[in-house]
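tokens incoming
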């Protein structure tokens, strides 16, 4: 059979009416055990699967949650996985709409509206607050990994995470710590403030350079540092991908990580834990963040108590210490003498 089997096909195979097949497929009362077995056997032989979209339309609910995310951002992929896990627990399905260099956020959001998603989870959106608020007026929206005033948001405490990372490096004796900024990326301003706060509290000099979100941008920042006379003893990158780019350039230049330069990232992406990477990083709880976002969105859809006013739900990040950071007093003698 070249087409998708229908209820009528199952009824013909089982020798019963379409109405009786419908009763069996809905697990409704009105069919004997023998008939149920015959209908289910016929459905299995034909490869019949109920169409969930038709069922939802009959219920006047699509039970679909739409998710926008940036393709290629590893942490976004972790959050998407968490959304799938949480949505399944609540009996919802997920429709993904990716953002790429050739497909902007507006297009991604419009696709989800057209797919009749009941609510939207926007992962790290870069649209303006006004644009997001306008979208939230059309459909329930929860923003994940960014703070947007007037719209439900679930995020990590990026500032606290940056303090954790910077304090870790300071505690290891580093005094020349370069921070690679994330520019206008969601959370970048808070992370920069956290770094500044920790460095100021320790009485150290600020050293902020353009970084970015990708390995290429991290590599460019590291290459620029190598042209300068005073190479830092530690680099705190905006995210893990940026940190990986830094590590690659340093190692290719013959500079050992962490023996000569410690490198720290942010997110705790799967790559960070690989044995040959072993990146110290600030961990965001992707499953917990995604679960809280889905729960908040479904609360709005179900009009649950306490879900009328916009909230900003913040979860604390944690530090994961691996092998890419090292105490200054463990550095080679010729480098320690420069401190």
């Amino acid at each position: 059979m070249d087409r998708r089997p229908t209820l009528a096909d199952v009824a013909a195979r089982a020798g019963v009416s379409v109405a009786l097949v419908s009763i069996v497929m809905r697990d409704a009362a009105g069919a004997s055990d023998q008939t149920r077995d015959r209908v289910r056997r016929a459905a299995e032989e034909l490869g019949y699967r109920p169409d969930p979209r038709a069922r939802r339309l009959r219920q006047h609910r699509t039970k679909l949650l739409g998710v926008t995310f940036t393709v290629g951002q590893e942490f976004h992929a972790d959050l998407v996985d968490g959304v799938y896990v949480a949505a399944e627990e609540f009996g919802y399905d997920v429709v993904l709409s990716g953002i790429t260099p050739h497909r902007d956020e507006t297009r991604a959001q419009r696709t989800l509206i057209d797919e009749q998603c009941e609510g939207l989870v926007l992962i790290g959106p870069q649209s303006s607050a006004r644009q997001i608020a306008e979208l939230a007026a059309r459909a329930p929206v929860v923003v994940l990994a960014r703070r947007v005033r007037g719209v439900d948001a679930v995020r990590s405490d990026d500032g606290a995470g940056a303090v954790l990372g910077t304090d870790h490096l300071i505690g290891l004796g580093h005094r020349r710590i370069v921070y690679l900024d994330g520019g206008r990326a969601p959370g970048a301003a808070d992370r920069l403030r956290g770094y500044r706060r920790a460095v100021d509290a320790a009485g150290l000099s600020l050293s902020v350079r353009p970084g970015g979100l990708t390995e290429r941008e991290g590599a460019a920042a590291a290459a620029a540092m190598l042209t300068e006379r005073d190479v830092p003893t530690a680099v705190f990158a905006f995210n893990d991908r940026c940190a990986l780019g830094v590590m690659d350039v340093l190692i290719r230049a013959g500079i050992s990580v962490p023996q000569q330069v410690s490198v720290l990232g942010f997110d705790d992406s799967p790559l960070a834990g690989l044995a040959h990477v072993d990146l110290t990083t600030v961990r965001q709880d992707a499953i917990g963040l995604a679960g809280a976002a889905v729960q908040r969105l479904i609360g709005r859809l179900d009009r649950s108590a306490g879900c009328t006013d916009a909230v900003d739900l913040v979860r604390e990040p944690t530090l994961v210490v691996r092998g890419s950071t090292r105490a200054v007093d463990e550095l080679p003698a010729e480098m320690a003498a420069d401190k």
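note: Confidence is low (pLDDT under 50) at residues 331-339.
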